[in-house]
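Annotated sample (chain length 441).
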Amino acid sequence: MWRYAWRSFTYLQEVSLSTRFLIRGGYVFFPEEESLRRADVEIAEGRIKRIAETLPAEADIRIIEAQDKLLSPGLIDLHAHLREPGREDTETLESGAWAALAGGFTTICAMPNTQPPMDTREQAAFISKRSDELGLARILPVGAATKGRAGEEIAEYALLKEAGVVAVTDDGDWIYSSEVMRCALEYAGMLGLVVITHAEEPSLCEEGIMNESTVSAKLGLKVRPAVAEEAAIQRDIALASCTGSHLHVAHITTTRGVELVRQARVKGIKVTAEATPHHLLLTDEALLSFDANYKVYPPLRTEEDRKALLEALKDGTIQAIATDHAPHAIEEKEQELDLAPAGMIGLQTALSVLWEGLVEPEVIKPELLLRLLTTGPASVIGEKVELKEESPANLMVFDPAARWTFDAQNNRSLSQNSPWFGKKLKGKIEHVFLGERHFSF
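Output written by the structure step:
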């Protein structure tokens, strides 16, 4: 056991090479069945040894009482910005991986809009190698779809895949050229890679800050209208249909956008989509506060759009909830709205705010939320999620009743641009098991 000191906080990492654990009495999420039921789980030597309704508390076994707590496979985030290389002052691979673990995520996908953009085998290999060295949440690189993210020439996908990328995207920017996007889908499809689209038609969003609505009219701010997303999704679905390749729509936000994806899936077009916690919980009215932490791209939409996203979670149109974790320095976010960068961090708070905002009011069931954070995202990138005897220990324990304040003392990110920073939240990650490692928070 060793103490890890960093910035103004300390916490413990416990390495349990020989310790056996018995997690007793929790509600266990079995991903194969998408069910929650009480069970005891024994962990030893980095693997799940036994699962049963009750297990004996043998000598030399460490017991974790988990009555009324959740035990689930580690969460998977399809969409995190870790800023390394280029902006290590706001996030590094290490700090992002710690923030992920503290939020229950054991796998995260690192977006390529770094400085320089991650568009070569060497850059992707660096991410994979660094992830192995850290031994924290597993970081899967996502390669740039085009060289330099310039939208003009596709990157070397075969080399990127050799280095471990699980998808390609120019996230942060839509690929404007239809011909380049068609090539991206064709070549990615040949290699079994998914193409992730940031669906905002840029000519409709120039200098836009927020959603076009009665709120924007009241505030007099420039807009990023819903039609910008819908036009982009419509074109990309047409190209996905033409090529037969897998298109994934990142951070979908609009009623019409959801309907386009729904219709495409009914037709058998290989399209998946993700929604973020903030688009599921907040609306554009949050910007009445002029707090730049609510400035995100795509922007927060209307209550009608938010409800459409929720329906899409329930009927399977949206497969995953992804954080779009986007760290920014304090001084950058404390500028006027039109100057502040877009984005908020979310790895550490996602499960807490979703649980309190959607599960406790019975908007969605806990099994659905856990599916959207485990098997759902795994299916997009071709991963498998298991919770059975002899499978590797890849688990998190969540206390839905715990109350905590997200603040500088427990924030694992190097940034704090979150509307939930400094606020009391309900529901907290207590333990994460990752192979032979055990982390307590």
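Annotation: Residues 1-12 have pLDDT under 50 and may be disordered.
Annotation: The first strand starts at residue 2 and ends at 6.
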